[in-house]
Amino acid sequence: MPKLIKDGALIENNWRLIDKETGIDSLGSIDNKQLIVPVKLWLENKELLSQYKDTIGIWFDSDENPALLDDDANNFPIIALNFPSFRDGRSYSHAAILRQQQNFKGDMRAIGDVRRDQVSYMLSCGFSSFLIPDDMDATVLLTGFHDFSENYQSTVTKPTPLFRRR
Amino acid sequence: MYIYDNYDHQMLEERISQFRDQTQRYLAGDLSEEQFLPLRLQNGLYIQRMAPMLRIAVPYGLLSSTQLRKLASITRDYDKGYAHLSTRQNIQYNWPQLEQLPDLLAELAEVSMHAIQTSGNCIRNTTTDQFAGSALNEIEDSRPWCEIIRQWSTFHPEFAYLPRKFKIAVCGTEVDQAATQVHDIGLYLLKNEQGEIGFKVLVGGGLGRTPLIGKVICEYLPWQHLLTYLDAIMRVYNLEGRRDNKYKARIKILVKSLGIDVFREKVEAQWEFGKDSQATLTQAEVDRCKSFFSTPAFEQLPNEDEATNTALQSDLLFKHWVDRNVDLHKQSGYCIVTLCLKDTGAAPGDITDRQMEFVADLAERYSFSELRVTHEQNLTLADVRTKDLYEIYKACKTESLATPYLGLLNDIVCCPGGDFCSLANAKSIPIAEAIQRRFDNFDRLNEIGDITLNISGCMNACGHHHVGNIGIIGVDKKGAEFYQVALGGDAGREARLAKIIGPSFAQEEIPDVIEKIIQIYLDERQNDEKFIDTYQRLGMAPFKESIYAKAD
């Protein structure tokens, strides 16, 4: 299982990420498994998957819009957003929208091309956990948490902008 | 000008150590070329033909004498003794060594300067009119608003990996010298009927491969909502701007394909959530930013100065310079002086270390220790006593800085072109020089009068050729450098895009082509018509006919 950083610590990852190619039949028994399924799979098997409320998470690619969950976002314990490349910045906005507009309270996980040099911006946009790519040293990613001690802007984690505090 | 406090200094230091670490990991092989690329770009570092190019941010073009002296010493110690003023009011070094960069950046930080977000797919340096705060009939000083936008856009966590670069201009003066309408977002300061400040917001302007004038997305945005509205625009662009083709990735393409009305609906839907949030600007913050741009300690002076008037009568060259390079100031007894960096033989916008130190001294002595880089690649001293004009002029003559060409044909706006830039199709500096040599006579230039001539070495349009009255663009024609000529562009409040006249020309033909264009204008103009007015009245036909006429 790939390594995981959650709430600033390296922890064991119990959630299995299901790729887009996997069909519902090849998942096998869902009982007692924690799965993060692609949004398409969830939409196609809503009825079945809804029974496993606390053990099914959902993930969105950068061109898939989490706004389609509307107020249902909080029905999921975890929502993962993919960075197909670290240069694709859409998941930053999706993350901020999920937190600010859909009021998502659960674990928001950055998956895909997650790198040390972007992680501080991801944190500010509301990501709470980071799935570490196989080629990456987890401790290196952790050093990126503290690149900046302050933000000028209103962010998800610090909604009061600096100008209201300085 | 804005003075960094502990927060600003701390964030800048954190950024410097972040980039130092990134550079070390890149050199150690821990970061791939591809991973390092956007990081170095967002720290201002390009790889060019000969060497790296470092672009230093000059926030809205404003510099102190201290900063300019530091730039001069860097020019001497890390470069070859000259730097280049860009069309976005920034300063570029063409010859820094990669291994010396951390030291160079540390020196810059000593004077609160950096190269952050001067490149890459992020929000770039906000630009404005160089007369801000001093112009006659100013609607509102744009500088505090630029500073508010600078802080909002710096290290914005959500918008560091946009589909493409993003440029914002703000204009609060009656005459727009900031090319506001050809920016991704253009903001015109205005007052409503109650006298309250707000912004007319334009979106989707830009030059480059697909030149477009920005469309009005909001006629009047109350100032309190500036940042939440900008956030909403950026969010729609970040999510919906094209990422499959970098030539279609700017916001102008999105606005054009959706249409401004649909785009506006999307922005307003986003804004619903952010509006009135804590990101809403406060009077206290606006007052704080305005306090850095308060009126200087002007003396009470009569508008006319007797000694200056005498000098104007006795020294004709001084009179020429004043007529062209000096503008009216809102304060009696003061004026705005622009030093034209377009001396024939030097690349337009280039400045030597010695000239920088000279101008820093001038600003300190005569203009409250401040100066501005203009988007036309000149330097403005914005608060000069009229009685000091003659002294300033005489001093400038000794440093080749008294060229009386401001706003004339030889005041050419020009990108570095194929001599330096790895993107260019063709050279641009030698074209500028050839034109300047052809027209190097003040009486003739003055007879031609107000005109803008812009040269870009490729369709990326750093020389803003689309908005020059005359625009020249380098094109590649089967491996040879050729030039297209366009007419009728205008970067001001009545922004217009220039139209290509016809087939391209070889480099050596260009001065003749310009000569023919000018001759048609001189033959056809009525009364005091400027070149652009004659062109608007006549259209392209007579110019085209003259240029492409076959010899009998």
Automatic annotation (TrEMBL), chain B:
Superkingdom of source: Bacteria
The protein's required cofactors: [4Fe-4S] cluster; siroheme
GO CC term, one of those recorded: sulfite reductase complex (NADPH)
Residue span(s) of domain Nitrite/sulphite reductase 4Fe-4S: 119-272, 411-547
GO terms for MF: 4 iron, 4 sulfur cluster binding; heme binding; metal ion binding; sulfite reductase (ferredoxin) activity; sulfite reductase activity
Alphabetical GO biological process terms: sulfate assimilation
SUPFAM superfamilies per UniProt: Nitrite and sulphite reductase 4Fe-4S domain-like, Nitrite/Sulfite reductase N-terminal domain-like
Keywords assigned: 4Fe-4S, Heme, Iron, Iron-sulfur, Metal-binding, Oxidoreductase
Span of domain Nitrite/Sulfite reductase ferredoxin-like: 53-111, 348-396
Similarity annotation: Belongs to the nitrite and sulfite reductase 4Fe-4S domain family.
Protein name stated in the entry: Sulfite reductase
Organism: SAR86 cluster bacterium
